[in-house]
Design a protein that fits this description.
The protein is 33% helix and 16% strand. With 371 residues, the protein is α/β, with parallel strands linked by helices. It has two domains: 142 residues, 3-Layer(aba) Sandwich (Rossmann fold), CATH 3.40.50.2000; 174 residues, 3-Layer(aba) Sandwich (Rossmann fold), CATH 3.40.50.2000. It is globular and about 70 Å long. Helix 9 packs across helix 12 and helix 10 packs parallel to helix 14.
C-alpha cells in the first residue's frame, strides 16, 4: 500500500493538500510527517473567547512541535480557523458523529479552558492520559484537572477574586497549560478573495479620498445591560473627529445595531454602514480597512487585535485587565468602585457607561491619529 495513513497531513476521507495541489503520492512525498502528540482543545463559548484562545497555539506548538491539534467548538465558530496553520482539524458539537469519534480516538493531551459543564463533560469523556483545565465528575460537578487551573476556576466563583485579578486572559490560559507566555498573537488570517472584497469596498466608497478611516462598533452582547456605550456618546465623538480630521467612518454591527447605525449614518456623508448581515469573516475584511476601531469588549475587539489594528475599547461591567493590549489596545475605564461586577442589570446612577465621556474617547483617538 502506497498510502501512509499515519501522516499528520492525511485527513482520512479525502486527498491531503499536497496531493491535491501537486499530485504527489506518499511514497515520494517530502512532506510526510508522522503525527506526534495528538492534542484536543475544547473551547465552545463565546465566539470572541474562542478567537482569543487561539493565542495559546504558538506556545503549544513550540512545546510540542510535531503535534497534531484538533479543536472542538461550535459550528458558528468554525470560520475562525480558516487559514489557521496551527490547527489541523476542527470538529463541532453539532456533528452527529462526535460522541462515537471521541469514544474511539485516543489523544495524548486534552485541554479544556472553559469551566462550563458542557465543555467539561466533553473533556472528561475524551480519552487521554493527560488532561488540562476542567472536567466533570461523577456527580455532574466541574472540577480542575490540574493545580494550575484552580486560580481561574475560583475567579469564576468569587467576584472579589475576579475584581482583584491583574492578569490577561491570555496569560491565565498559558499558566493553566504550563506554557511560557510570550504574548502570542490571536490568530486570524484573511484570504486573497476576502482582501479583494475589502479593497472593492474601499474603492467603491472612495475611501482613498480620506486621510484616516475610523471604525465604530457600537454593539455588544445583550448579556450585560451596560456593556454598550450610549448613542449620544458616539454622536459626539463622530462630530469632534469629523471637525478635526479628514476622516471617514465605517459602522459595524449586527441586526441589533441596524437602527442605531442608520441614525449614526445621518450625521455625515462621510459615514459608511458596512451592513448588519455580514459573516464573521466579512466583518473582519471590513475591519481591516480602519486606522482605529472604537468598540466595546466584544468580538470586534478580538478581530481587530488579531489584525494588528489600533483599538479604543470601552469597558464597563467586564474586566479590562483580562484584555491583553499587545501594544495596540487603548482601554477606556471609568472611575467607579463597582467595575468588574459582571452584573446582567444595574440600577446605579450614574452607571459605568454614563461616566464614559465623549472627551475621553476623542482624546484617546486623537492621540493615536496624531502619533
Amino acid at each position: 500500500m502506497i498510502l501512509k495513513s499515519d501522516c499528520k497531513y492525511f485527513p482520512g476521507d479525502r486527498p491531503c493538500k499536497y496531493h491535491k495541489e501537486d499530485k504527489i503520492i506518499c511514497s515520494v512525498c517530502p512532506h510526510y510527517k508522522e503525527a506526534g502528540n495528538f492534542i484536543l482543545i475544547i473551547k465552545l463559548d463565546a465566539i470572541g473567547d474562542v478567537l482569543r484562545t487561539t493565542s495559546v497555539l504558538h506556545a503549544l506548538k513550540e512545546k510540542y512541535p510535531d503535534s497534531s491539534i484538533v479543536w472542538l467548538t461550535k459550528e458558528n465558530a468554525r470560520d475562525i480557523f480558516k487559514l489557521n496553520p496551527l490547527v489541523d482539524e476542527v470538529i463541532t458539537v453539532e456533528s452527529p458523529n462526535l460522541i462515537s469519534d471521541l469514544s474511539i480516538t485516543e489523544f495524548n493531551i486534552v485541554i479544556n479552558l472553559d469551566p462550563s459543564p458542557v465543555s467539561s463533560s466533553f473533556a472528561s469523556f475524551a480519552k487521554a492520559p493527560v488532561k488540562i483545565g476542567y472536567g466533570l465528575n461523577g456527580k455532574g460537578k466541574v472540577f480542575p484537572f490540574n493545580p494550575e487551573a484552580e486560580e481561574w476556576f475560583e475567579m469564576g466563583a468569587f467576584d472579589s477574586l475576579k475584581k482583584k485579578n491583574t492578569k490577561s486572559y491570555q496569560q491565565i490560559i498559558h499558566e493553566i497549560c504550563s506554557l511560557d507566555y510570550k504574548k502570542g498573537k490571536i490568530i486570524f488570517n484573511l484570504s486573497e478573495s476576502e482582501n479583494k472584497k475589502s479593497e472593492e469596498f474601499f474603492v467603491s466608497r472612495s475611501l482613498g479620498n480620506f486621510d484616516k478611516i475610523i471604525g465604530i462598533n457600537a454593539g455588544a452582547s445583550d448579556r450585560w445591560q451596560f456593556k454598550k456605550w450610549r448613542q449620544e456618546g458616539y454622536e459626539s465623538v463622530i462630530k469632534q473627529l469629523a471637525g478635526k480630521y479628514n476622516c471617514a467612518f465605517l459602522l459595524f454591527g449586527g441586526m441589533n445595531e441596524t437602527e442605531l447605525n442608520r441614525e449614526l449614518s445621518k450625521l455625515s456623508k462621510n459615514i459608511f454602514d458596512t451592513g448588519s448581515r455580514n459573516s464573521l469573516r466579512e466583518l473582519a475584511s471590513y475591519i481591516k480597512l480602519v486606522d482605529v476601531l472604537i468598540t466595546g469588549d466584544t468580538l470586534a475587539l478580538h478581530i481587530a487585535t488579531a489584525l494588528n489594528k489600533q483599538v479604543v475599547c470601552i469597558f464597563g461591567p467586564t474586566s479590562s485587565a483580562e484584555i491583553e493590549d499587545y501594544g495596540t489596545v487603548s482601554k477606556i475605564v471609568p472611575e467607579i468602585d463597582c467595575l468588574v461586577c459582571y452584573k446582567n442589570t444595574c440600577g446605579f446612577t450614574p452607571n459605568c457607561m454614563e461616566l464614559v465621556t465623549g472627551e475621553m474617547i476623542y482624546n484617546t483617538v486623537k492621540t493615536i491619529l496624531d502619533r
